[in-house]
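ARCHIVE CARD
CATEGORY: sequence design from structure
SOURCE FIELD: tokenized fold
FIELD CONTENT:
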């Protein structure tokens, strides 16, 4: 799917489907927050949430006192819903409407978080661009956390094909540039009571990079 088609597709999703009915709805993103805490990410860290949309991860980051937060999503409508929900707090966050497949950051990050955006990149060239972007955009010693559908998870999400990953395939994909810290398999229960199996992995960019 081309960039313009992806943008149009996700705009329609976010304009027509309430957050609490979305498969990715998570009022408390426990897994993501656990990776943040386990890696002792300081409050001054530069954090980016890729494909964050109108998820609640940013709410929890603000409540915890994080000072430098960026949320990226292909849908302006998703970001608008999050800003509206946050009210005055929204001014403390940088909002970037962009496609993760072609995103070119203008700054570097200490904590790169991606829950369920990466697995939508099904073309090899999009995956390669994303990994190169991550390599260039995370500070030495910085942390990368990616959560995708596992090989036991769904093959589609919101009607779109996705690329499944295992702990092994995720590790192989990123080991050239990052040191694996931890991988886990978790189940996510959707609002419609379906179970989606995820693989979450954390990596550290070597200090010498």
């Amino acid at each position: 799917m081309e960039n313009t088609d992806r943008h149009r597709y996700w705009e329609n999703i976010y304009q027509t489907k309430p957050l609490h009915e979305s498969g990715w709805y998570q009022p408390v993103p426990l897994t993501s927050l656990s990776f943040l805490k386990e890696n002792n990410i300081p409050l001054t860290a530069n954090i980016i949430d890729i494909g964050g949309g109108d998820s609640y991860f940013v709410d929890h980051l603000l409540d915890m006192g994080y000072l430098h937060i960026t949320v990226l999503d292909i849908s302006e409508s998703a970001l608008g819903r999050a800003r509206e929900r946050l009210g005055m707090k929204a001014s403390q966050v940088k909002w970037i409407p962009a496609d993760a497949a072609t995103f070119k950051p203008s700054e570097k990050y200490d904590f790169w978080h991606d829950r369920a955006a990466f697995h939508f990149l099904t073309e090899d060239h999009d995956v390669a661009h994303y990994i190169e972007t991550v390599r260039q955009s995370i500070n030495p010693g910085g942390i990368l956390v990616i959560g995708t559908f596992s090989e036991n998870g769904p093959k589609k999400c919101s009607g779109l094909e996705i690329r499944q990953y295992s702990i092994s395939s995720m590790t192989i994909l990123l080991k050239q540039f990052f040191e694996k810290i931890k991988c886990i398999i978790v189940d996510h229960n959707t609002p419609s009571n379906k179970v989606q199996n995820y693989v979450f992995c954390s990596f550290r960019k070597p200090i010498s990079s």
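CARD ANNOTATION: The mean pLDDT is 93. Residues 19 and 25 are 6 Å apart (CA to CA).
SHELF: design records, drawer C
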